[in-house]
Design a protein that fits this description.
Blueprint lengths: L1 E7 L9 H16 L6 E3 L5 E5 L4 H8 L5 E10 L3 H18 L7 E7 L8 H16 L10 E7 L4 E4 L3 E2 L10 E6 L5 H11 L2 E9 L6 H16 L3 E8 L1 H10 L5 H20 L3 E3 L12 H8 L5 E3 L7 H11 L2 H4 L21 H8 L4 H11 L1 E4 L1
Parallel strand pairs: 5-6, 9-10, 9-12, 10-11, 12-13
Antiparallel strand pairs: 1-3, 1-4, 2-3, 4-7, 4-8, 6-7, 11-14
Helix pairs in contact: 3-4, 5-10, 8-9, 8-13
Length: about 400
């Protein structure tokens, strides 16, 4: 069996409500390792501990690195709290670490933590004994200030854990503790990143995308499904709704002056998301909008778009530039999917010079030629649901 120590950070600040956040984190960790052989999850003081069969170690670590609320994980050797066994494990973990990365041979340090105060040796003594063993077995010099290799030892009541690897996890809050939202998901770079950031702050999300066949083909639809599935690997999105938009988009295009089209499209999308929020018990709408990036994302246009919503609109990327957003998209695994050359409905029927400061009166006059409430209700009612 392999043990993986899972550390959480921000949850320590939650005071009397910490148990609620911790239980949500434990549930999400269990969901992440579900299906792996012999997977078990426990929660000793200050840690979440996962046990899996040795052959599942790599997959378990990959999944746990994507769990919001965790700040880092460490595959560890778990053994009886005996100093001789601890020293042997420290040697084995150090040797395995330098085999993986020879650069770590420059220097090492033992970092002990003794939560079991009945253990006969104090932390300094544990460090000395284990350090002597590692130094004698490997010849690696000790550097307590800037070591290349850090060997951690945690001595608890029932077991000791020894590790020489610390993998980063996303941090934040467990997905779901902040409520539920609808993510407006397109095939572009921005909206998947916005959904990831919202999940990092504890939002569970259902994604909503708009599809305009035959102008957007099945590959464009598959692209958005692939993005949603990638977000699902992070526990950011659980469901994808695919809403048909062709007929409504044509009617909106013909309802007003061409330069108003983008604002009209976005207002209708927000109306549909608003209805979905109401139906699915969600409290907010998440968008990938950024301030000043495209014509619809000026202060005037964003205000004119959001005014039709009854639910809160969240814009996690509002201050990001494209370089920052792209870097995060690469990190979370959505960039290569977003870069596929299949356009979604957001690029259809867009005028050469869209309005950057559309007047609300002009927008409302254009919409008055349609029954926009019925259009939105029909789109929401007929949307296809995919459970991820």
């Amino acid at each position: 069996m392999t043990t993986i120590l899972c550390r959480y950070g921000e949850l320590f600040l939650k005071g009397g409500n910490r148990h609620i956040f911790l239980q949500a984190l434990i549930n999400n960790v269990r969901a992440a390792v579900r299906g792996l052989p012999e997977a078990k999850v426990s929660s000793p003081h200050g840690r979440v501990v996962v046990s899996v069969a040795d052959q599942a170690r790599g997959e378990a670590c990959t999944r746990l690195e994507r769990v919001f609320g965790l700040v880092s994980i460490s595959p560890a050797a778990s053994l009886a709290p005996d100093i001789d066994a601890i020293c042997a494990a420290a040697v084995a973990e150090a040797q395995a670490a330098v085999e993986r990365n020879p650069e770590l041979r420059r220097s090492f340090k033992i970092e002990p933590h003794r939560s079991n105060k009945h253990f006969p040796l104090q932390s300094h003594e544990i460090a000395c004994r284990a350090g002597d063993a590692v130094s004698a077995a490997t010849g690696i010099p000790v550097d307590v200030h800037q070591p290349a290799l850090r060997v951690g030892i945690e001595v608890a009541t029932q077991a000791a854990h020894v590790f020489a690897e610390r993998r980063p996890a996303p941090g934040g809050l467990p997905a779901g503790v902040s409520g539920r939202a609808v993510l407006l998901l397109s095939g572009g770079i921005d909206s998947p990143v916005a959904g990831w950031l919202a999940a990092k702050r504890g939002l569970a999300q259902e994604a909503l995308t708009f599809h305009s066949p035959p102008f957007t083909g099945e590959k464009a639809k598959d692209k958005v499904i692939a993005l949603a599935r990638q977000l699902a690997r992070w526990q950011a999105v659980s469901t994808l709704w695919i809403a048909g938009f062709t007929d409504t988009q044509k009617r909106l295009r013909g309802a007003g002056r061409p330069e108003l089209a983008v604002v009209l499209y976005r207002r209708m999308m927000v109306r549909v998301a608003d209805l979905l929020c109401e139906r699915e018990g969600c409290g907010a709408i998440v968008t990938g909008e950024n301030l000043g990036q495209v014509a619809s994302q000026t202060l005037t246009n964003m205000r004119n778009i959001e005014i039709v919503a009854r639910h809160l609109i969240l814009r996690p990327l509002v201050t990001y530039d494209k370089v920052e957003t792209t870097a995060l998209a690469r990190r979370i695994g959505t960039y290569d999917i977003s870069a596929l050359p299949f356009e979604d409905c957001c690029s259809l029927f867009v005028p050469a010079h869209p309005a950057t400061a559309a007047r609300l009166s002009d927008v409302e006059r254009a919409e008055a030629t349609l029954d926009v409430a019925k259009e939105a209700a029909d789109i929401a009612e007929q949307a296809e649901r995919i459970v991820l």
